[in-house]
Write a structure and sequence with these properties.
heterodimer; A: Rna Polymerase Sigma Factor, Chain: A; Arc Repressor Mutant, subunit A; 10 helices; 0% strand; B: mainly alpha; 8 helices; 57% helix
Chain lengths: 222, 169
């Protein structure tokens, strides 16, 4: 057997072993995978990442628009989860614990960004004041599609209500899961959910009314 | 049921988040209350908006983030000591160090009168015993008399025993 053939065979064996590891991990539940990760199995943690990454990315995307930032954050979330895995209480479910880390990191990121934006706006206020308004783009809502409109309304809802609304109505987590993710009682979550829906409904209706008035005014002008 | 209460429950009802036993009373109220019926319609409309938005296709990755995560994994996990417990342990260690330090220095800081005061007795020379004039204490073990002057040369740790255990007159 030549050297190149030997190395090709060795590589193929390694790949098969990795595939076997991956297949082996797929059969385990989260608790077992956590246990295996604690014992040093990277493949077990890889399986946990694969199980939760798309939903985690979806949840983060509900709060953050920039896809690059979403990806960076999702990686950070998994890294933090890995580092803190010894602290994870095995009697709890892994999913809500992971999403708790994810939501907390996302909201922290948003708060930091907002503080930065406020500071930037404050420092640029004078130049903003002097800027003239282009009548064609005076109302940016005119060019928004439905998802942008919804996002814009959601952004006006205070964080603690918005978080519950996003997790329940957009990502379909149960109220008990949201309670675990946000570390609040389920009764609190239900109350916040009712308030959040009321706030969204009021803001959405007000926006629709403003849009219809603006639309009528445009027709009258034509 | 008051409209205020009913509306709070209606907001949960539209998302199937109301407990089973709460549904019927709310439905009864809605059937009799026009403004609350309107509230149901408003809530259903805005709920539909959210539902349609929830189905929006968000950015999808073709590869797993694992490829990026695996390169950054630390060599080992952090020890399983919760942060709160770490802080408590640190406080206990500091408290122990302070207590030991204070215990070592304390006898030298406390005057004799205080140490003797712990027995509640000020000792004077007994009339029936022939001893030079002065102040004495009685040793707790052999009941012998010891002058306070003779105790001055002793380490304080040794003196505290007999002085504390003196039997007063």
């Amino acid at each position: 057997m030549t050297t190149s053939t030997r190395s090709a065979v060795a590589e193929s064996v390694t790949t098969r072993e990795a595939d076997t590891d991956e297949r082996n991990c797929q059969g385990f539940n989260d608790a077992r995978l956590v246990e295996m990760t604690r014992e040093g199995s990277h493949e077990a943690f890889a399986e946990l990442v694969r199980r939760y990454e798309s939903r985690l990315i979806r949840v983060i995307s509900r709060f953050i628009l920039d896809p690059v930032m979403v990806e960076d954050l999702s990686q950070e979330v998994f890294l933090r989860a890995y580092r803190k895995l010894e602290l994870f209480d095995a009697s709890r479910r892994f999913g809500p614990w992971l999403f708790q880390i994810g939501v907390n990191m996302t909201l922290d990121h948003l708060r930091k960004t907002q503080r930065r934006i406020k500071w930037t706006l404050f420092s640029q206020k004078r130049s903003e004041d002097q800027r003239t308004i282009d009548p064609e783009t005076a109302d940016p809502r005119l060019s928004l599609d439905l998802s942008q409109e919804v996002r814009s309304v959601l952004d006006q809802i205070p964080e603690k209500y918005r978080t519950v609304l996003v997790l329940r109505d957009l990502e379909n987590f149960s109220t008990s899961e949201i309670a675990a993710i946000t570390d609040r009682k389920e009764a609190t979550i239900r109350w916040r959910l009712a308030e959040a829906r009321a706030k969204f409904q009021k803001l959405w209706t007000a926006r629709q009314q403003r849009d219809s008035i603006a639309g009528r005014a445009e027709v009258d002008n034509v | 049921m008051k409209c205020r209460t009913a509306r709070q429950k209606i907001r949960l009802l539209v998302g199937n988040d109301l407990a089973q036993n709460e549904i019927e009373p709310v439905r009864e109220h809605i059937a009799e209350c026009d403004p609350c019926q309107q509230h149901v319609e408003d809530m259903v409309d805005s709920s539909d908006v959210l539902t349609s938005y929830s189905g929006e296709v968000l950015s999808q990755r073709k590869t797993s983030v694992w490829e990026s995560v695996v390169d950054q994994l630390p060599p080992q996990l952090e020890p399983a000591v919760p942060r709160g417990r770490q802080i408590r342990q640190s406080i206990l260690v500091v408290a122990a160090v302070v207590a030991i330090s204070v215990a070592g220095v304390l006898p030298d800081l406390i005057p004799d009168s205080v140490l003797m005061g712990s027995a509640g007795v000020q000792i004077t020379k007994p009339e029936s015993v022939e001893l030079p004039a002065g102040e004495y204490v009685r040793h707790y073990s052999d009941q012998s008399w010891q002058s306070l002057e003779s105790l001055d040369g002793m380490p304080r740790g040794n003196r505290r025993g007999p002085v504390r255990n003196v039997v007063g007159f």
